[in-house]
Amino acid sequence: MRVAVLSDIHANLAALDAVLASVGTVDAVWHLGDVVGYGAQPNEVVERLDAAGAIGVRGNHDAAAIGGAEIELFNPDARTALEWTREAISERTLGWLAALPERLVTEDILLVHGSPRAPIWEYVTGPVPARAGIDALSRLGASICLHGHTHVPVVFADAGGLVDALEPDDGWTYRYAGHPALLNPGSVGQPRDGDPRASYCLLDTDRAEATWHRVAYDIASTQARMAAVGMPTFLIRRLEVGV
Known about the structure:
This protein is α/β, with parallel strands linked by helices. It has eight helices and twelve strands. α2 crosses α5.
């Protein structure tokens, strides 16, 4: 099965459309949360994912957008964006986001936003949380985990008790068969690894392979839409540099 794995779209429709065009025909679309927040087109992004038959999990921005107390934990710019999002989302979008689970296991693969042990909030940024996440996989009925949240494409792989951290380049393929690992596809809508192009990965479950890809999109149009609804300047400008 060929699967498009997307994370952290953040209401950036131009980036999502560029990714879906790049992906082409797939058997499934999986998303790893933070569908909304930051960007100016939450309803349109949810409509696009729904039309693609996407399945996935809830992120911290999604939880806050539907009224969760999580909004109290955000920095001022992110909170401003989420307060706007709460006012802008339709009832249909609200219901779609509310129905997202915190964890999902499919094809022996765990989908979360943050980490296996803290699915919404934990950032897996190094070997310590990665080791804990890898150790939790078997208890959760999965061999590998797909996660987002950090907006940085990375693989944390089991290495005999240690953890290898691998940084995927555009077109790089990782063969995960028999190797417990955490795979982060990077962010579609707001990359933070210094590359402003949208990031995603394609999974081939028959070959047990994941391949990372980058695709350019119309950043200026996204910025214009954000400015038009009064999003904070920092959130708008950071898209240009991918930080």
